[in-house]
Design a protein that fits this description.
The complex is a heterodimer of chains A (425) and B (58).
Chain A: H1 5-10, H2 14-19, H3 21-33, E1 36-39, E2 47-50, H4 53-61, E3 66-67, H5 78-87, H6 105-117, H7 119-122, H8 126-142, E4 146-148, H9 149-154, H10 156-166, H11 173-184, H12 201-228, H13 234-240, E5 242-243, E6 246-247, H14 250-281, H15 283-291, H16 293-308, E7 313-318, E8 322-324, E9 327-329, E10 334-338, H17 339-342, H18 377-391, E11 395-400, E12 405-406, E13 415-417, E14 419-424
Parallel strand pairs in A: 2-10
Antiparallel strand pairs in A: 1-2, 3-7, 4-14, 5-6, 7-10, 8-9, 11-14, 12-13
Chain B: E1 7-10, E2 16-18, E3 53-56
The chains are: A alpha+beta (425), B mainly beta (58).
């Protein structure tokens, strides 16, 4: 069964993710009428669109049956995939980080930094992260009652935290932010490398290549430095780490730095900005949270993550013939896992299009599931908890002071601007 | 069983099961000991099996 072409085009359209309603409407229709069906947007190879919460978990749990790395892990059109394979010696990936790997490499590379991101380790960082959070709230207060919460707080706070953990000096944070936005927002003229609205495919590819090259140049210098002068940071773990007695491959090491330096803050930033946007639009939820934030905090954070779902999709490919939802899936078939759809699944979430700070249960799947579940999820939750613990007691009122905007992107995106008017106690 | 409550951690994702708190959303009451949790329990955040949890001090 094939998805109608207008729906197939919508679910890959960066502008539709920016507007959000077309995406909500398209996936609502798909969950009801075609919960698992094939889409073939113009210029793309066909792929299964997995819209239901249970099916996404089913696929992600079976990481040997559904591989990340055999085909592009992020939706890429036919021309783009062909060019990447030409450039990368046959591989469909420009980088090879944890998300592009399967076992045994995935397990080996994940174990390298996993201890750093476990709750018992990041707990040691809580005091320092609280200092950073307070400093950003002080800066927000200094803005005198209006600010762009996305640009002035939400983009910068998780960026500063992860760069300290990685070992990037503060002076380079704006550079890292720009490269991250270029990487995740290639279609958005406000953030992409060329600032053009309608780049040709080749221009788009060259822009991404240039961004990756900037990252590689930067982190090559860092590798050299950390090999000579190791420190207590993640860059030193990557630079000096070994797998089965051998240093990390060059592509894999560069990709490791890039994923930490990009996904390590952008997703938390998107969620934080989206949470404040939701609170400003829902005064009764804001009041409920403010009056009882200690008790409601864990649930509010899960709801923020569900609400924003910053990672919009990942692709998998079947390593064997199988069935999903009773439907035959052939070996090498490509599957598009839609996290926003899973997080609005009416069979799992009551009233899924409503933001509820006290939603329970909340089995949101924005961090993924199975072996590839987000490595930084505990850090992300802790960063958000600390920011809200520091901000909410000081924030007397908040409302929108203009129209918020989301980035135009179909892979990772969220609010790029959340203008607010606020009063502090 | 008496004695101090313990914590168990999923080796894949780092999720921590605290016996004192249980997992009320999963139908596991506060105070439920690890050995009293059914063998078909899976990690609520990543789906790994009970056998892939290890006892940890946090």
């Amino acid at each position: 069964m094939k998805i109608p072409q207008d729906i197939a085009q919508t679910i890959v359209d960066p502008k539709a993710y920016s507007a959000q309603k077309p995406i909500d409407d398209a996936f609502k229709w798909l969950r009801k009428e075609m919960p698992l069906a094939v889409a073939e947007p113009e210029g793309c190879y066909p792929f299964w669109v997995v819209t239901k919460h249970d099916d996404i978990l089913h696929v992600e749990r079976q990481n040997e049956l559904f591989h990340n790395g055999d085909r592009p892990t992020v939706l890429t059109n036919i021309t783009g995939e062909k060019r990447v394979r030409e450039i990368m010696g046959g591989s469909p990936h420009l980088v090879r980080s944890l998300v592009q790997m399967d076992n045994p490499d995935h397990g080996n590379y994940r174990r390298l930094t996993q201890p750093y991101f476990l709750p018992q380790n990041i707990k040691k960082l809580e005091g320092r992260i609280r200092e950073i959070a307070k400093s950003f709230i002080d800066r927000m207060e200094d803005k005198g009652g209006t600010c762009d919460f996305a640009r002035d707080v939400a983009f910068l706070y998780p960026l500063h935290v992860i760069m300290e953990i990685l070992g990037v000096p503060e002076v380079d944070e704006p550079f890292m932010l720009r490269l991250t936005q270029e990487l995740f927002g290639p279609a958005d003229p406000d953030v992409n490398r060329t600032r053009k609205a309608n780049m040709t495919e080749e221009e788009g590819l060259q822009a991404i290549l240039a961004t990756v090259a900037d990252f590689v140049t930067y982190f090559n210098k860092m590798t050299k430095d950390r090999r000579e002068h190791p420190r207590d940071d993640v860059a030193s773990v990557i630079a000096n780490g070994t797998i089965k007695g051998q240093p990390l491959g060059e592509l894999e090491a560069m990709s490791y730095y890039i994923i930490v330096a990009s996904a390590g803050h952008d997703t938390t930033s998107n969620t934080t900005a989206g949470a404040l946007w939701a609170l400003a639009e829902n005064p009764s939820e804001y009041k409920k949270l403010k009056n009882n934030f200690a008790e409601l905090m864990p649930g509010f954070i899960e709801e923020s993550i569900r609400w924003v779902t910053p990672v919009k999709h990942f692709m998998r490919s079947a390593t064997d013939d199988t069935t999903l939802r009773g439907t035959p899936i052939k070996k090498n078939d490509w599957l598009f896992l839609s996290y926003p759809s899973g997080n609005r699944d009416e069979d799992v979430f009551d009233d899924p299009f409503t933001f509820k700070v006290d939603r329970t249960p909340n089995k949101q799947i924005a961090f993924g599931y199975g072996a590839h579940v987000c490595l930084g999820q505990h850090l992300a939750r802790m960063e958000m908890r600390i920011l809200w613990e520091e901000l909410l007691p000081r924030l007397e009122s908040v409302e929108l002071a203009g129209e918020p905007k989301r980035t135009e992107a179909n892979f990772v995106c969220g609010p790029k601007s959340v203008p607010i008017r606020f009063r502090m106690h | 069983m008496s004695g101090k409550f313990r914590t168990w951690q999923c080796e894949n994702c780092g999720f921590i099961y605290d016996e004192a708190q249980g997992l009320p959303d999963e139908g596991i009451a506060p105070g439920t000991r690890w050995e009293d949790i059914p063998d078909d329990f899976v990690c609520p955040t990543c789906g790994f099996e009970k056998a892939q949890f290890v006892m940890v001090e946090v």
